[in-house]
Amino acid sequence: SQDKSAVVALVLESGIALAGDQRDLLPALLRPLIRAGDYEQARALAVASGRLDRRVLESFALTQATTDPDFAPLTFSLHSSEIAQARLIEEGRLGVEVAPGRLVTLVDRITQLPPGAYVMRQSLDVGLLEQSPRVEWVLRCAPGNAPPVWQQAVPPANGASAEPLALTIPPDCGLQFWRLVVSTPDGQKPVRF
After folding, report:
1. Comparing C-alpha atoms, which of 6, 21, 23, 122 is closest to residue 69?
2. I need a labelling partner for 180 at 20 to 30 A (CA). Which of 14, 54, 120, 153 fits?
3. What's the rounded Cα separation, in Å, for the pair 17 and 19?
4. First to last CA, the chain
5. What residues form DSSP beta bridges with 167?
């Protein structure tokens, strides 16, 4: 841990770009910083790498940059397993497939947004599904296992404009832990949306 801190300090002070051959070093340095709660140094390292614009850390849109796995969990982590998959299919649009009768976390992220009122606009286009899945954002403050300070289901819109989802980040919520949780109805086939 001290060795990694020294390496991070060296990278930050020297201005070494973590690209090309050094690209694999970045996740190995970022993740221990996050686990140790050193979010500020992790953010500084991500920006100093030369591969992440600081504005990406403040953006909540689903884009190539905000879903770059090298910077997770500073960017969105899109989870995939044998029972569930989440992938970016175009800027601002997530493709999801979940096995029937499951409750899974498909997306998570840590942010450091200032306290205040926010509005999230998202729509859930479930097409012609007989039963809609439940899709819900959950926000916790540090530590990440604290009770949620905000939970909101994303209402099915089927192509209609997104309903605004109002939320407030309290003043004592310096770090935010976000999860997108999906619950699918029982059935025979995976749910795709």
Report:
1. 23
2. 54
3. 6
4. 42
5. 118
